Amino acid sequence: MAYRTPVADMVFTLKHVAGLNDMIAEGAYPDLSDDLVDAVMQEAGRFNTEEVAPLLSHSDVHGCKLEEGQVTTPPGWAALYRAWIEGGWNSLTGPEEFGGQELPLQMASAAMDVWNQGCMAFALGPTLTMGAVEALDKHATPELKAKYLEKLVTGEWMGTMNLTEPGCGSDLSGMRTKAQAVGDGTYKITGQKIFITYGDHDLTDNIVHMVLARLPDAPAGTRGISLFLVPKFLVNDDGTLGARNDVEAVGLEHKLGIHASATCTMSYGDNGGAIGWLVGEENRGLACMFTMMNNARLMVGIQGVGVAERAFQMARDYALDRNQGQSVGAPKGGAMEAIIVHPDVRRMLMTMRTLTEVIRSISYRCAHAIDRTNAAIASGNNEEAKHWGERAGILTPIAKSFSTDTGTDVASLGIQVHGGMGFIEETGAAQLLRDSRIASIYEGTNGIQAIDLVTRKLPLSGGTAIKEMLIEMGGWTAKASQSEDETLAMIGSEMNESVEDLNFTTEWLLAALKAGRMEQALAGATPFQRLFGLTLGGVLLIKGAIIAQELGDPSAEKRLAMARFFATNLAPETAALMDTVVNGADAALDSDKVLAAE
Amino acid sequence: MAYRTPVADMVFTLKHVAGLNDMIAEGAYPDLSDDLVDAVMQEAGRFNTEEVAPLLSHSDVHGCKLEEGQVTTPPGWAALYRAWIEGGWNSLTGPEEFGGQELPLQMASAAMDVWNQGCMAFALGPTLTMGAVEALDKHATPELKAKYLEKLVTGEWMGTMNLTEPGCGSDLSGMRTKAQAVGDGTYKITGQKIFITYGDHDLTDNIVHMVLARLPDAPAGTRGISLFLVPKFLVNDDGTLGARNDVEAVGLEHKLGIHASATCTMSYGDNGGAIGWLVGEENRGLACMFTMMNNARLMVGIQGVGVAERAFQMARDYALDRNQGQSVGAPKGGAMEAIIVHPDVRRMLMTMRTLTEVIRSISYRCAHAIDRTNAAIASGNNEEAKHWGERAGILTPIAKSFSTDTGTDVASLGIQVHGGMGFIEETGAAQLLRDSRIASIYEGTNGIQAIDLVTRKLPLSGGTAIKEMLIEMGGWTAKASQSEDETLAMIGSEMNESVEDLNFTTEWLLAALKAGRMEQALAGATPFQRLFGLTLGGVLLIKGAIIAQELGDPSAEKRLAMARFFATNLAPETAALMDTVVNGADAALDSDKVLAAE
Fold first, then answer.
1. Among B173, B434, B579, whose Cβ lies nearest the Cβ of A572?
2. Is B445–A416 a contact, with Cβ atoms under 8 angstroms apart?
3. I want to staple A580 with a disulfide (CB 3.0 to 4.6 A). Which of A339, A584, B147, B450 is the partner?
4. Is the whole-model pTM more than 0.80?
5. At A174, which CATH number?
6. Where would I find the Acyl-CoA oxidase/dehydrogenase middle domain in this sequence (chains A, B) (predicted)?
7. Catalytic annotation on A143?
């Protein structure tokens, strides 16, 4: 059986679990109808199943090559990208003024889920462009917008983010790349950036680099960093391409996965300085960059979702096809049966499928909170904007970290289902593990996400923001546990224990922060983040099961079975995570002797 | 800081946690002294640190090549192997009559831990040879032994195991390779075998293939399989090499990891039939093969231990070296500090180091049970032999599965500690994940180990064998919890909860088996296996901490800190696993709707 984009499942989650349909019903998107959502998603699914997904292995085998400063992508890649932007897929969220469709981020997220199922290395590039569009739209001058934004919105050109330097990754305070005002409104940029995703390629005629650098008089640390737009080719006033700018890819990383995504070392100013334009105010570059990074974190989380879906389908199809052994109770010496009959294989596949639905739900729900925030800002409702902004702030690190860790776990289970074939590269299962592994690292490692969650997001509105979420989660588990459906009632009561675990742990962390026990709180940040993801995920499965039942949706029984599996097989871990956070911090910090070299 | 074999830590675990010193004290090994153990292990450590470990990345980059039926290994590999066998490292456990040193399997296990730290792909080959030695020693005719055994014991020649065929992996009943008696005591072997580790290479002049095949009159299924010795080159009566046999490597797999270990497709009899000799009785080949596989399972478990140790050291050294951010409470804007100051990094490293000690302890303890069994058999003590044989039977699937799953988890954490550098192949962290991933699959997937544990090992002696283990574990937690040392007492009482979880789950599974609820028992097999590994591992950490304290060993504080970290941060998972086994089976089996294609 060949891979197919599971459009119906995704659309249900988008409309009913994330909440897009409520927003449509409330009139937040006058141009968007229920049917249009279906049509867009079906076409995305078709394009992906037919055009993107078949190139997955090809892209890994060919990878990218760097010769004389120019990166070439795998054969067929440029044509695929061209067809993809002609389908309008790059412009889903961009501003209408510059050719965008201004669709909700929820739809862009579901579409990104689709492309990541097809090929994560392909889907990654447009994520960066999307970030560049947001930063320019919010912070650039009208002149810069006029010159660059439409090309980026349509995907005619692509964007990059240039933060990292050899001595400066998670901590940007040590940044050394320099910018010097020329006097004509431009700047000369000199320095070296590393790990630049899609830093160079042959998919588009031009590439728009968003580069962080220091002005000569800038304060030390992160308050002295400015953001610059540095195009690969200068752009004439009529929009045609001019001279090549003084920026070049000088190195290409040899990576574990996503081989078709060029990770470049970029050299700026080897011949006097690359010409750049300031975006936003001087020394406020970090704030501008965070505009780019925030949604990028969600998009990285969605990479985990897409890879998990592909890994699940690959493993499920193999398990249906591969005969080995017999089912329990079959007559001895009878024919071998498909390995999907074995309980342990079913456990693995149930885990893969259910976790995929969980991280999809969390990620779409995060996009929903961002859409709500934007809608509230647009309508001038400050209270709503604050509420949903905080909600989005809490959900973003969870969507990023839990989805990416889970994506890798699911990909690894996919290898296991394949047995020996899983270790053979041609099978494709191993590539999904190799590809997905980066997602827990880039756009802020998952450890950094956990620090953000505990130290900045938990305390929002004095802890009220997170407590409101807990109350909502408790509402769903209560509704389930009061159901006349015995299975649903059991699920509700099991998941309610997880909500209580999360509640207790949240209170403990808030108290630790208040008491200044920062190291203890930080020691529990990663297990807390996972506890949050598991609990929220189980609650969203309940939500999906209840709504599917109410609507008589064909997925109702499936969603109930997933919620049941999750509640009884995966959710019990929450109690252990609570224990770890609450009782384990001091032992985790008492590490000097254990970590000393022999 | 460069990697170094942690000999002192390993020797303590070997002597005191596994129990080698007790056996030496009891006189089980008259030629072995406490000092000799130290000397052997120190020399192994030196050879590994200086000779094997530096070739790790080199072996991955070069890999193996197949040209005209001949596999070549990476440059330098053959010289390394030659030096290694000249050091006597291949002959540690072989029979004295054929040049072996007859050292305990515990020492061979610790040595194998050493070589796997150096390079898993290198350590893997001799594991197969070791299996061939055991099978021939137990089952071959005196003539075959005289011709082959000494060369295999010294490592002058290497051995292979040929089981798998395209349609026949975990289930060997469908095997098709044929053997036909020639009439002169030899057999003609024809057929194709896949996934043959070290199937061909240039390390030795000859390779001795142990091949499963069917005789013409053999019963169907696994009771009709016989074992044959098939040399790459025929051996003359004077021991010199004769004609090339009709066996050839015709394919080489392109794998996720262990690139320097050639995984071959072997073709037997393309030109009339490869000449082979029967080993053991006709149609009893599977029993002979299990002689090879049993210890091989432990050796695969030890691959997880070795890789975990290397991954830990690599990550720890990086965390000491890489400056990024500041510690809690440091003055703002001060210098960046090594990332090991961050609580989340310390948690990762503590997890890596503690889990490495756990799986080392379990694996050495498994070797100890096998040594006890062999000693009891040698001294004719049937009761002891039965007791320790059952103990070894229980420990083997746990040592195999828990150590390999954990090895991969630790390797993946190692990538995470490295941040973006972890995804770059040259760093080396990614290779450890790629290498280790196969260990959960080969020599019986970890799912197969779990089935073995639950359906064959749990019921040994009516469940008494496993209950005796639980009582012993409870003895250690009781001793700890009664200690005057408050920390130790807390650890004992925490770990005792895990022992109770394991106890309850064991009883539940035994009852399910008795009631014929086989599918339910099998659905919980994998979580039960992990529950067993975690509980036993925590208890062995306690044992190590108590004995180190009693002996005033310099590792005492470190071992206590590890036991504390484990008890409060990792052991809480056991309650969740109990829940999953006891309450989750029906939901895991209710998979039809969830796993159906959209």
1. B579
2. yes
3. A584
4. yes
5. 2.40.110.20
6. 161-267
7. no
